[in-house]
Amino acid sequence: MAYVINNDCISCGTCIGECPAGAISEGDDIYVIDPDICTDCGTCADVCPSEAIHPA
Ligand code: SF4
Ligand code: SF4
Questions:
Q1: Mind listing the pLDDT tens digit for each residue in 13-54?
Q2: Atom of ligand 1 nearest to the CA of 2
């Protein structure tokens, strides 16, 4: 399992610096989480202003 960023992402960039695993990167339209790296800590979901990040 991993957290997933949906289309509510406004590409603010807040989450990328908060991920302790370095699993978040900037995609073409929205930010994306690499499911192979995400450790399901939930930190990114807590800081996202758009509530765009949820457990898959
Ligand atoms: S849940 Fe944790 S490890 Fe996974 S992307 Fe969010 S901050 Fe990174
Ligand atoms: S914090 Fe939320 S809105 Fe901002 S880049 Fe990350 S997923 Fe997108």
A1: 999 999 999 999 999 999 999 999 999 999 999 999 999 999
A2: 4
Nearest-CA residue for ligand 1 atom 6 is 44
Q: Outline where DSSP puts E strands in the chain.
A: 3-5, 24-26, 31-33, 53-55
Looking up residue 37, the CATH number of its domain turns out to be: 3.30.70.20
33 is in which domain, residue-wise?
3-55
Number of domains in the chain: 1
pTM for this structure? 0.96
